[in-house]
Amino acid sequence: MVPANPSIPLEQGAAAAQAVEQYRAQAVDEVMAAVCERTAAGEDVFGDSGRDDVDALFDYIAGSLIAGEPALFGQYVVWLNELLAARGVPPDSLPRSVDLLRDFFRDRLPSAQFDLVNAVLEGGRRALEQSPALGRGPHSSIDATACHPCTEVLAESLIRGDQRRCEEIVAAATAEHGYVDMAVRLVQPALYRIGEGWQARKVSVAQEQLATALAQRLLVRQLAEATPAAGNGRRALFACVPSNQHVLGARIAADAFELEGWEVDYLGADTPIDSLVERILETQPELVGLSVALIRQLPALKEAVDRIRSACGDAAPRIIAGGAGLDAVPNLAQRLGLDQWHAQPRTALEEYA
Ligand code: B12
Q: From ligand 1's centre to the CA of 111, what distance in Å?
């Protein structure tokens, strides 16, 4: 759970995010130079993707400023620290980089803006001090009590690419619990486990991709067997926000509504905002569900919501969003202009039944 925040007003947060963005390239250069020089390890102090990791910090600073939640940056750097530890990166490299960013911005931003950025960076520093290389990111929190007992076996079978075993497991779980609960209580946590394995470098990217592709196929097969309720004449649209490549969350949410008799458009990964708005104006869904997987995607979500509302005016659909971990952020939905944030499709269905 993310603690209540000192609250960064939305407009100031957005302006600070813009100000920080202007300095991105220069700040990344300075941090890389200083960290590499200090550790005498050359350009690859953070591993092969060192520059990208420092660069990505900017997306997460922006995400935290837009969400008004310094603790989100904290969650991210704790997650990153775990990843870097698994890559053998010296443990003080990340805290040092956050300090360097603080010094960089202290000299460049007006003091009111620096205070906001510093609150985010301090959130990161505090989180790193409290959980050195052991923290759990927002996506690692699997509620074991809510998981299907076959979660671990499914995760292992997905990584092995053992289609037959996977099919047996999901078919049995669907027969017992129905499609949506099978997806949420079995496939979802199995993929979360695989994500943790990737983070700890125990699962390769190829295995992660194989597992997701297989999971998609398993879901399609089970969905094809399910009997949807009679059409209820209601229309919904689901999509991933720009840059979100994680398709299964929105897919399962779309499936859940379809099974209840809704007519559903599912636009898939990385949906450009122009196309999203165009489709909404064309088909006028009653409900739009957007999916976000990473904190860095929050600014894109905010932009999508703003654009839909301004294009549709009074006729705007209800707009909801979902994605792991972020439901715990206080007032996030309200701040982003959403009607609601949903940790999983079932609660959304109950709300719009
Ligand atoms: C598979 C996967 C990928 C695949 C995705 C392929 C695909 N076709 O989908 C690929 C390889 C592309 C990928 C890429 C990346 N990934 Co990835 N990925 C995963 C993994 C293992 C599984 C994702 C998944 O399918 N989960 C299962 C679904 C069902 O769960 P869900 O998305 O949470 O959805 C549920 C709810 O959140 C909710 N929900 C979601 N959306 C919506 C929308 C609405 C409207 C509603 C109502 C509900 C709802 O309902 C769903 C069902 O209950 C996760 C692990 C994890 N914890 O999710 C990591 C994970 C999300 N990825 C991660 C990372 C870092 C990345 C990359 C940055 C790095 C990389 N691997 O290259 C890139 C970024 C790509 C991008 N720009 O989006 C991290 C994020 C860490 C963090 N703290 O931010 C994770 C958590 C892995 C980890 N433990 O470190 N990834």
A: 36
